[in-house]
UniProtKB/TrEMBL annotation:
Organism annotation: Kwoniella newhampshirensis
Protein name: Peptidase M20 dimerisation domain-containing protein
Domain of life of the native organism: Eukaryota
A Gene Ontology biological process term: proteolysis
Active site: D124, E192 (proton acceptor)
């Protein structure tokens, strides 16, 4: 079923209104990472011979996250959505109990003859400061003065642009008096950029209540692989994040006094971390490679069909530093094979200068991106055994501890599901070309939560381009992607309504 032409025309005619809506959303600095307790002591000061010393404790709950939730609630209500805020608990920060931003759920339509589509988005964003290197104030949506159509602002593509896209679709149908082709249920959270705390518990608690009756799900929180080709994403790598802690003396030591006399924690740590992965990216932990599923002919064909050139990744990383010059090998390395990355060392001297210290305790941090067949538990078992065995070979008197700090399982969906077929047709209709079928190298843990808990096929339908710079300075969304993305989301609903299961 093609989208109603009146809907498509309305989107074109109201482009300025839609940009204004996104501008308002971007102006609300809903940084969930600022949800914190800060405490500090004011130094003694003298005022007219009066000496004052005091402790100040500031509860700096980010009201902007709350304000963004209120903005969404107001928008949804005006568009005919039955919406409500749901508190999902608290978390402890620096010993204090803090309310989590609410989850906003909404529904419009309950016709039993129609499919019911569940959509998800998040209304929180990453931190951003002008002095980080932004061309423009990050919380002011700024059109590129050169006329490129780029709209700069934090959250413009991750994930306020796509969320506003859904609101644009609802507004067009409401103002035109058009009936939606499907029933819509929606779930918007304000903690995605800070771990989606308690969302999995909320999904579980509402599995047989609010979420009951959903036929399939669409998430728009990822991006095209390049800047030219729309895509549908059917897989995500998971992640295991680890720390290795090496402890020795009970205090930092002077290398001139104690160097050459003690087992040094930093030396032990670097020795172990050097054995985890080769410079060519080969994971050296025994057992992990053996878990990787063989590549099927159908899978290889999907990778070979992707519109991708090595120049795309060279531009994305700022130079030719790829491990391979073969496109399929590079894509598989990014999407379907595991990788191990070293991230940093905590406790080591890093300030400018030449401090001759032997750290008494250091932590090495690394992660492994998981793919199907590599579970959090199986990989962790191999990691712990390997690190302990390698440490034992050092003959060190220091102590080692290795542990998983957080993990998310990999996810893969059936790209032949009717929801994907509908999205394929919608993409061809809006963009005039067939989409690539991709898997993401990164992780969106909530995708797996929804898929596993609700038993739904989940479609990742990106709106933004591969160069949007989510989480980076100068995050942007192109006006064309924002407007045609609105058409894509609406057209997908029409195709979904018409596609047979």
């Amino acid at each position: 079923m093609a989208a109603d032409p009146k809907f498509l025309s309305y989107v074109d005619e109201h482009q300025a209104d839609y940009i204004k809506r996104l501008s308002k959303a971007v102006s609300i600095a809903s940084v969930s990472g600022n949800l914190r307790w800060a405490s500090f002591q004011v130094k003694p000061v003298a005022i007219k011979n009066l000496s004052l010393t005091t402790d100040i404790h500031i509860h700096s709950y980010v009201k902007d996250v709350e304000a963004m939730g209120d903005f969404l609630m107001e928008q949804l209500a005006n568009l005919g959505v039955t919406a409500e805020k749901r508190q999902i608990g608290t978390h402890i920060l620096e010993g204090k109990e803090v309310d989590l931003p609410p989850v906003i759920i909404g529904q419009i339509g309950n016709d039993p003859k129609k499919k019911t589509l569940l959509i998800y988005g998040h209304y929180d964003v990453q931190p951003a400061l002008k002095e980080d290197g932004w061309l423009y104030p990050p919380f002011e949506l700024t059109p590129d003065p050169s006329g490129s159509g780029r709209l700069y602002g934090r959250g413009s593509t991750d994930d306020k642009g796509p969320v506003m896209g859904w609101l644009n679709v609802l507004e067009a149908h409401k103002n035109l008096g058009l009936e939606l082709p499907v029933n819509l249920k929606m779930c918007f959270e304000g903690m995605e950029e800070n771990g989606s705390t308690n969302l999995d518990k909320f999904i579980e608690s509402e599995k047989d209540k609010f979420f009951a009756g959903a036929d399939c799900m669409c998430i728009s929180d990822n991006y095209w692989l390049d800047t030219k080709t729309p895509c549908l994403t059917y897989g995500l790598r998971g992640i295991n994040y680890y720390e290795i802690k090496i402890s020795g003396p009970d205090r930092d030591l002077h290398s001139g006094v104690f160097g050459g006399t003690v087992h040094e924690p930093m030396t032990d740590l670097i020795s172990i971390m050097s054995k985890l992965v080769t410079p060519a990216g080969e994971i050296l932990i025994p057992g992990i490679k053996e878990l990787i599923a063989p590549v099927t002919n159908d899978e290889r064909a999907k990778f070979e069909a992707i519109h991708f050139e090595m120049s795309d990744i060279h531009a994305a990383v700022g130079g030719d530093v790829t491990l391979s010059e073969d496109t399929v090998t590079t894509l598989m390395g990014r999407m379907r094979n595991p990788s191990l990355s070293l991230h940093g060392i905590e406790g080591a001297f890093s300030a400018p200068g030449s401090k001759t210290v032997i750290p008494c305790s250091v932590k090495g941090k690394f992660s492994i991106r998981l793919v199907p067949n590599l579970t959090i538990k199986s990989v962790t078992d191999y990691v712990v055994k390997f690190v302990q065995d390698e440490f034992a070979k050092l003959g060190s008197k220091n102590k080692v501890d290795v542990y998983l700090t957080h993990g998310g399982e990999p996810w893969i969906a059936d790209p032949n599901h009717y929801s994907y077929r509908a999205a394929h047709k919608a993409t061809e209709s809006v963009y005039g070309q067939a989409p690539d079928y991709t898997r993401e190298g990164g992780s969106i843990p909530v995708t797996l939560d929804f898929a596993n808990i609700l038993g739904l096929n989940v479609l990742l339908l990106p709106v933004g381009r591969g160069d949007d710079g989510a989480h980076s300075t100068n995050e942007k969304i192109d006006t064309d992607n924002y407007i045609r993305g609105t058409k894509l989301l609406g057209t997908y609903m029409y195709e979904l309504a018409a596609t047979k299961e």
